[in-house]
Write a structure and sequence with these properties.
single chain, mainly beta, Methylamine Dehydrogenase, Chain H, seven-stranded antiparallel sheet, 1 helix, 33 strands, Quino_amine_DH_bsu, transmembrane
């Protein structure tokens, strides 16, 4: 039986089972302190396509420093969207799971959301509607790991002599599926080892002068034509956002060829600083401004509205931002205003309240990448 046959059987079986939904999306990168004791951080729409037809999530425990980790199956829906308020993760179906510490990073995978705690940079867990299962991936502290919303793979780099290994683990089986050696100069960022992005069976590793395209299944390493060095980005369905050295011009490019699909200049916006964020299918891009936070960590976008670009049609639609905004796995927008959470269509025009009750405010939307 081929992988495709197995996927088809699982998908057909999943269609006959009534399951709740899970998960959201947003890229959120915190920056340094700015004037008047206010902090600025990137807020951007979420990205993620959750893999249909997966019936269960899996818990990974053990260590990758030799022995293969132990896997215990957990009943729960790995699809959907969620927001986190402190240690409470609120799913779009209204269910709530409590995490052991405040959540500052919720990323989609096809077997659940990969969560990181603000209390420990090394504490990773897999979250579904069934609950929280801690993971032991070895030492992943101060490393930017890569995940893909439509696959179970997680990747990061490990020091290896004068270079590194690009390590890939299947969260659905617990297997270490690849350790691909790479070399190059890495000084541009503060993480211990070079940061990684994942798209299918490709891992993208940002070095000083180039980004490596690692076909980890085949063990082949090449230089990406579409991604520069010294810059970290998500790669979604073969597309990514890049920026110039000054950060004032951003582009959506085809990673394999470098073809430019969209160019945006920060100077064209009132807030002067914006970040492009791709939708889960890579067909739209949302230009969000900085999120400015005060000393009480109360945060607001620096613009009231932002444009969504349809890359295929060449059209542009303005969407109201409110406090926070992100994408569901299906490409619908999630919008948060105070304690109100609503789900909208792909361009934020038709919206409905989500069955979520918050006490204060949303700290994180699933799919976020939030590491200083």
């Amino acid at each position: 039986m081929t992988d495709n046959d197995l996927r088809t059987l699982l998908r057909d079986a999943a269609d006959e089972v009534a399951v709740p939904r899970l998960a959201t999306d947003e890229l959120h990168l915190r920056t340094r302190t700015i004037s008047r004791r206010r902090r600025a951080r990137w807020g951007a729409g979420a990205a993620a396509v959750a893999m249909a037809g997966v019936l269960g999530a899996y818990a990974l425990s053990g260590s990758l420093r030799g022995d293969e980790p132990h896997i215990a199956a957990a009943v729960g829906d790995p699809r959907g969207w969620a927001v986190a308020e402190g240690a409470s993760v609120h799913f779009g179906d209204g269910s709530v799971v409590t995490y052991g510490g405040s959540v500052n990073d919720l990323r989609y995978t096809s077997v659940g959301m990969l969560a990181r705690s603000t209390q420990s940079n090394t504490r990773l867990s897999l979250i579904t509607t069934a609950g929280v299962e801690p993971l032991d991936l070895g030492d992943v502290s101060d490393r930017l790991i890569g995940t893909a919303p439509d696959s179970p793979y997680v990747s990061w780099t490990v020091a290896d002599g004068d270079g590194w290994l690009v390590r890939v683990v299947d969260l659905g089986t617990g297997e270490k599926v690849a350790d691909v050696p790479i070399t190059g100069k890495y000084t541009w960022a503060g993480w211990k080892t070079p940061p990684v992005a994942v798209d299918g069976e490709h891992a993208y590793v940002a070095l000083d002068d180039r980004t490596l395209d690692v076909d980890w299944r085949a063990g082949r390493v090449s230089t990406s034509k579409g991604l520069p060095g010294s810059y970290t980005t998500e790669v979604i369905d073969g597309r990514a956002v890049t920026q110039d050295a000054r950060g004032t011009t951003q582009r959506v490019v085809e990673v394999a060829t470098g073809e430019v699909l969209l160019t945006v200049h920060s100077s064209d916006f009132p807030a002067d600083l914006v970040r492009l964020k791709l939708s889960p299918d890579g067909n739209r891009a949302l230009a969000t401004p900085y999120v400015t936070c005060d000393e009480n960590d109360e945060c607001r976008y620096d613009m009231a509205t932002a444009p969504i670009y349809d890359l295929a049609q060449g059209t542009e639609t303005a969407v109201a931002l409110d406090d926070r905004i992100g994408w569901t796995p299906e490409g619908h927008l999630i919008r948060v205003a105070g304690t109100k959470v609503e789900v909208c269509d792909e361009v934020g025009q038709e919206c409905a309240d989500a069955p979520i009750t918050l006490k204060k405010r949303v700290d994180t939307i699933s799919g976020t990448m939030n590491q200083s």
